[in-house]
Design brief:
Elements lengths: L4 E4 L4 E7 L6 E8 L2 E7 L1 H21 L25 E11 L4 E8 L12 E6 L1 H15 L29
Parallel strand pairs: 1-7, 4-5
Antiparallel strand pairs: 2-3, 3-4, 5-6, 6-7
Length: 175
């Protein structure tokens, strides 16, 4: 039996956010279409990968379709806040991107994380259809959001926990 499907076409708003202190934050991807608010749990690395991949994706679209106008990001930090209620539909296992030329919309496809023993056909999927400008805005915001975490140790490159940091390089050993 197929899993739940969410198809927000088009989104009036797409954003990402995090709740909790650095090192314990939970990240979310959120989209709105009319009265439907869809919230998904994502990993910080998924936000970082999506954000960095979006610029490359938009560059490839511009090369493939040179007649498309350049999308300009337009966001204020307050516009990117998560909406309440934060009630996630599922945890994302995989994110993908697609483009529909006739509608000039990009689709962000989120597949539910499948646990061991679960049939992948039963996993939920969400499609968030957005403009290229919304996508560029999300990418720039995602980079900023992910960068707000714990500072990185200049010695070992690992995040520094506010309660203390064991640096494997401080004693000449690296795990």
């Amino acid at each position: 039996m197929p899993g739940l499907e969410f198809d927000l076409n088009p989104v009036s708003r797409i954003t990402a956010g995090a709740i909790g202190p650095p090192g314990q934050r939970v990240f979310y991807l959120q989209g709105r279409h009319e009265s439907t608010l869809l919230t998904l749990v994502v990993e910080k690395m998924q936000i970082q990968s999506l954000a960095s991949g979006l610029e490359q994706f938009l560059l490839e679209l511009a090369q493939q379709y040179p007649d498309l106008p350049q999308p300009e990001p337009d966001y204020r930090e307050s516009d990117m806040d998560l909406e309440q209620p934060i009630d996630p539909a599922f945890r994302v296992g995989q994110l993908g991107l697609g483009f529909d030329r006739p509608s000039d919309r990009v689709v962000v496809v989120a597949h539910e994380l499948v646990s061991e023993g679960q049939d992948p056909e039963e996993a939920a999927v969400a499609r968030l259809w957005c403009s290229r400008a919304q996508l560029r805005t999300l990418g720039r915001w995602g980079i900023e959001l992910a960068g707000r975490g714990r500072p990185i140790c200049g010695n070992c490159g690992e995040p520094i926990d506010p309660r203390g940091h064991f640096c494997p390089r401080s004693n000449g050993h690296k795990p």
